[in-house]
Amino acid sequence: MTVDLVALFLHYALISLLAIGGAISTAPEMHRFLVAERGWLTDTQFTSSIAIAQAAPGPNVLFVAVLGWNVAGLPGALATMAGTLLPSTTLALTATRWAAANRESRGVRAFTQGMTPLTLGLILATGWLLAAPYATMPGRGLSTVALLVLTVLLVLKTRFSLVWLVLAGGVLGALGVV
Question: What is the model's pLDDT at position 122?
């Protein structure tokens, strides 16, 4: 399998500008490009790459490097990380400086408030993308959906730390419940 590193870099550079809410919010587009369009990864490889990177200590954006590594080794990891970090960092630095100087303007306040539903929608799409393969597995679908619903209810109705919920999900997964 031949991987076009320039196309990989350029695609990640483009989607980095859409990463409202963090790089994980662009996971559905990464999945479409890497799995559905190019066939460089399978569904399982994609989901496992994100799970491994999210379980490791460090910044959440590391999943991008793991995806790139699984596509094309070290050159793939460098292409995806550079593509993700260069445009978004440049834009964030420039926009933050401008917004700080104009924080009282009506446009800046409206933009900030308008980004909240967009961020929420992108993160929900990512959650669905990552859960869908497990929710459709024979014998595990119902337990996966039940765990998702229970987690959402616990987050909304209690003050449980998310760390405990992630730990509980990991234990249930290790025991083969989900």
Answer: 83
Q: Which of 134, 149, 166 is the last residue of a domain?
A: 134
Q: For residues 122 and 145, state if they share a domain.
A: no
pTM here? 0.67
Assess contact for 125 and 28: CB atoms under 8 A. Answer: yes
* Residue spans of alpha helices (H) in 18-140: 27-31, 43-55, 62-101, 106-135
Distance CA 106, CA 19 (A): 24
**In which residue ranges of the chain is pLDDT below 50?**
none
What is the overall mean pLDDT for the chain?
A: 89
Domain residues for 72?
5-134
Q: Verify that 33 and 77 share a domain, yes or no.
A: yes
Statement to judge: residues 77 and 164 lie in one domain: no
Sign of the dihedral through C-alpha 114, 81, 46, 131: negative
pLDDT at 94: 94
Q: 128 is written with which tokens? A: 């669905």
